[in-house]
């Protein structure tokens, strides 16, 4: 994991660089030389916060092409209705 430090000015001048760096590890953003913010990839954020993706989000991801998903078919049976 690579840790990158950028000043607020550097971030404003080259957001693309910060986004690329966030793929490799956290990006610390400083204000007046002191760490003020951290930029993370969404995957790293979810890992740290323990957030889980729902099945629709998981299947929409590019790596989902390798997932075998065959849900069991439900059996729906009719029942008489008592309206008395």
UniProtKB/TrEMBL annotation:
Coiled coil stretches, renumbered: none
InterPro entries: Antitoxin_Phd/YefM, YefM-like_sf
Role played: Antitoxin component of a type II toxin-antitoxin (TA) system.
Family listed: Belongs to the phD/YefM antitoxin family.
Protein name per the record: Antitoxin
Organism: Isoalcanivorax pacificus W11-5
């Amino acid at each position: 994991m690579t840790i990158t430090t950028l000043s607020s000015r550097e971030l404003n001048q080259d957001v693309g660089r910060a986004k690329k760096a966030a793929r490799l590890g956290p990006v610390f953003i400083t204000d007046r030389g002191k760490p003020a913010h951290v930029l993370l990839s969404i995957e790293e954020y979810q890992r740290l916060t323990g957030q889980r993706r729902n099945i629709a989000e998981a299947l929409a991801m590019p790596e989902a092409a390798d997932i075998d998903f065959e849900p069991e078919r439900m059996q729906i049976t009719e029942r008489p209705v008592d309206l008395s």
